[in-house]
Specification:
Number of helices: 6
Structural class: mainly alpha
Largest sheet: none
Mean pLDDT: 84
Distance between the termini: 10 Å
Strand content: under 5%
Number of domains: 1
Low-confidence stretches: none
Number of strands: 0
Amino acid sequence: MVIQVVNIVGGFVLAAPKLKEWTSKEHVEGAEQKLTKFRGVIGFIALILGILALLGNFGLYFMPYMFWAMPLQSVAAIAIGLILSANFFAKWPKVSGFVSSLERNGEWIGVAGIVIGILGLI
């Protein structure tokens, strides 16, 4: 359940520009301003939980009470985590190049993270 919530929150931070087009701006802007301060922290948490959940899906790490995540949850959390913590990866050019290629579709990855997170909670 934790990774689903992280996907929803991280997805919201990424998808906020797209959500402003679809819904009322003032509500999205208020939440976005509060969450943007913690962008790097949210990204780092999403990345770590995504890696742990992916390892758990392959049987290398086992914490069922925390994750209960399908592999799609893990991949979404890793992608969201990489994009939100992009400043951390600026030191490594190859990783930074991969992250910048992900950032081009960051809004849609955020929307997918929200949808995947909500579907995982249902």
